[in-house]
Amino acid sequence: MAVIESIFDILYLSIVIGLGVRLLIFKGKESNLVGWMALLLGFGDAFHLVPRVMAHLTPDGFIAYERALSWGQFITGITMTIFYLLFYFYYRKQSGDLDNNKKWTIIILSAIRLVLLMLPQNNWGIVNGNYRMGIIRNIPFLIMGLLLIFWTYKKRKVSGLNNMSIWIFLSFAFYIPVVLWASKYPMLGALMMPKTIAYVLLILEGYKYYINEFKPENLYDISFTFLIMGLVAGVFYREFTKYFNFNGATHLGKLHVHTLVLGFILIFVLYLATRGKNREKFIKLKKPFMTYMVGLIFTIVTMTVYGIYDVVGKEEGIISIPMISGFSGLGHIILSIGLVWMLIKLKKNYEISYENSKS
């Protein structure tokens, strides 16, 4: 379970941060708001989820990272409040609902929530924190959520808001039981996984509104996204190993190269090979390309989890190495299938073009 949850957490962070970068480099400036929402969501949750992954993979478990997890919740609380504040302005723009009473209601609720998060009574950094304050600080947050669910549901037929009310509702439906009862029934903490999925689907809803067509120009932006992600991976490897004063071999050292070569360079070459070509033929590359992307992302994610374990696991058999190697192998298999499939499609399209030019 430790391996599966760790892979899930890193996969979630990789997807939302990647989608955020992709939206920010998109030509339409209107997509920037959703891009910043995605980045805020990813980097904010990283302060809580990365220590959680480390706790799963270290001999000392969660005891060693209690303070980090507590402060991570503090940062996540702030970023999630700002996330929904930004979402309101996305809703306002898409729906054309310019009611200033609604605007100030959301702003005031956000401010109250942020002030409550800052109070020393929360006992941030202390084991278990303050249960009562955990409920109090979430009251304005819940009101924000209920208002946004109601408003977006009324505008559900507006393009870009179609399913937003569903994903916001589910995110709160899974989150509230954790706040109320997880301290007594720890198994309820598992609800944070479907809550996380709801956030991904919410971001994807905005993403699909702006980027809903598979065309050669998209490959350049995807390649650029992997360039940024590769540079981030290199910084993470350097700073993470430096923090733990780790000088040994780790799979984190492979992240930078794998992301740049298999992501940035290969996709950029695919962009050059298909630029200006027949769009009907290019559409046939969508399935093999998406298969390749799934394999590449899964490979990078499992490599990240394995690399974190190399650093914090201290080779004490905390997790099953065959299991994580199996997951990594699965990613490589899917990646290889997608790559071969793409090459076959490119070859077939090239032969058709060549035959047409001869005739």
Topology overview:
Elements lengths: L1 H23 L7 H26 L8 H30 L4 H19 L12 H6 L2 H16 L9 H18 L10 H19 L5 H28 L8 H23 L4 H5 L2 H27 L8 H38 L1
Helix pairs in contact: 1-2, 1-8, 1-12, 2-3, 3-4, 3-6, 4-6, 6-7, 7-8, 9-10, 10-12, 12-13
Global Rg: 22 Å
Shape: globular
Average residue-wise pLDDT: 88
Main pleated-sheet profile: none
Enumerate the spans where pLDDT stays under 50 for 5 or more consecutive residues.
Answer: none
Structure description:
The chain has helices at residues 2-24, 32-57, 66-95, 100-118, 131-136, 139-154, 164-181, 192-210, 216-243, 252-274, 279-283, 286-312, 321-358. With 359 residues, it is mostly helical. It is globular and about 65 Å long. The model has no long low-confidence stretch (mean pLDDT 88).
Question: What is the structure about, briefly put?
Answer:
Helix content is 77%, strand content 0%. It has helices spanning 2-24, 32-57, 66-95, 100-118, 131-136, 139-154, 164-181, 192-210, 216-243, 252-274, 279-283, 286-312, 321-358. Helix 1 (2-24) packs parallel to helix 8 (192-210), helix 2 runs antiparallel to helix 3 and helix 10 packs antiparallel against helix 12 (286-312).
What are the key terms here?
359 residues; mainly alpha; 77% helix
